[in-house]
Structures are given as C-alpha cells and as structure tokens.
Amino acid sequence: MSQESFAHFLSKKIDGRQYIDTGTVSRWERRINTPSFHNQIYILRKLNLKICAASLLSEPAGEYGHEQAIKLLQNRFNRFSGLADKPYRVNSPRFKYTESNDVNSFVNDKVLRDFNNSVLGVEFLNSNFLHVLLSDIDHVRVIKFYRDEQIVGHTAYATIYTEKLVRFLAQYCKSSIRSHFCSDFDGKVLLNFSSYASDFSLYLFYVYHMIKDIELDPEIDWYVGHSFINDDWQIQKKLGAKVMACGKSAEQGGVKIGKFYTDSVMFSTSASTLLSSSLSALKEEDIFQYADIFKLTQ
Description:
Layout: H1 3-13, H2 22-29, H3 37-46, H4 66-78, E1 94-100, H5 103-107, H6 110-120, H7 128-133, E2 137-147, E3 150-161, H8 162-172, E4 188-197, H9 200-216, E5 220-227, H10 230-238, E6 242-246, E7 249-250, E8 255-257, E9 260-262, E10 265-270, H11 271-275, H12 284-288, E11 292-295
Helix pairs in contact: 1-2
C-alpha cells in the first residue's frame, strides 16, 4: 500500500478526529516523530488489530506500570465506606465465581436484582431500560462472586453497537448524547450495567477482565458506566471520563458536577484512553496477591 493510500485509509477510519496526509505517514516511517501512545492504540484498533496495549511499551513503568494501576484502583475502592473488606483480611481469602454469557439469564437474574436492591439501593438490572435494550445487545458477561455460598460481588456488562445505543437513549431517555462519541459511530460500546465488590481482589479481578475484553474486541470504541459517589467520579475523570447524563439534582452528597450535585452520573471514556492508561498493565498475578479466586464448574 502506498503512503497516499494508507494516509487516505486512516483518515477515513478516524474521520472527525484528525486528517492524516502522506507527509505524516512519511515522518512515521522515518521515525522523525511517532503518534502518541494513545493514538498508536487508537490507530491499531481502527485497523482492526487485536493488541496487548502493555506490550507496546518495552517495560511499562511509572504512569503506565501495574503498580500505578493498583494504587489507582485501591484509592477508588477505598472511597466506598460500605465496602469494608476487613472480615476477609485475617487470612488470604478464597472466593469462587460463576460466569455467564446468556442474555436472557442476565436480564432475569433474580440474585443480581435482589443484590442491587439491598446493597446498592438501585433497580438498574430490573428496569425497563435493560429490557427494551435487550434486542440490541451484542454480547454480555455476568460474573458473580461467592464466599461460603453467599454472593459477595458481581459485575454485569454488555457490548452494544454505538449507533444503536445513541438512538436508544435519544428515544427512550430523551437524551442526545451523539456528540459524546465524536465520529466513532460504526463501532461498539462496552456498557457496564452493574458492578459491586466487597473485597479489593474482586474489584481488581473484574477490572482486569473488562480491560482484556476491550483489548480483544477492536470494535469497542467506548466504555460507558455510571457513578453514585463523587470521589469515585473524580477518579473516573482522571481516566478521561466525560459526563453523558446526570440523575436527579441533590442538595448535598452524590456527585458534584461543577457547582451542582446530582444523585448519579452516566459517563463515557474512550477505549483507547483506558488502554493507554496504567490499567492495561494489570496482570493476573496482581489479583492473586490479594486472594485465591477460582471458577466454579457447572
């Protein structure tokens, strides 16, 4: 492929973000300059290449090292006053987990609904939102964690094509969010419906696997989640999150947006931003420093 053809191809792929000409490609080839780490990941994924982001760095360290990722996640986990893991810290705890990719089971999972209602006080998994969106979901992953037969955490997320999510939110939620996704409408969104971890090791486990799922699917351009706690939102912002929609206004508590408070916020972060952060340097052995987690056989 000629420089001109490659430049034209890339420009079409990243339409709306940056124009790439033959001079730019030539400078890359001659190593006069290179795209930023974030842009390298973005371009490779637009070329539909599955990459391990950490492998692009010879030795991930500093802001890109897994120690930084663990510190960041510990700070975020510790912001939740109700998530005390002291009962599990006497000895190295052992957890079991189950995993499902069945969409119908995801929607009708009474255990998750009851858990969300009692622990988080939300009915997100039992809302009309999820049932209406069901037909547009591309892939789902539900992980439930147990200790002594009691559920102690979970994560439930799905991928959906970006254009379908934009249309859905415009129609059913009366929210126009198209501008939040720049020009990346031909890919997918990883939509985190609900997550809870009663122990840091569980939190580390599902973040690690979510990042790996994003890495393995180059079509995923965006991560969409929600937050109910201001300190959590502040850490999400450090990872490049942008507000998509706010919940009900609150006099105090909740999430602070500018000078105002809201009881919740929905946000989006580009997949390339997450993969160019220290989170991509997490390793499986990082998880097992904190606990033994093994999969239950069905």
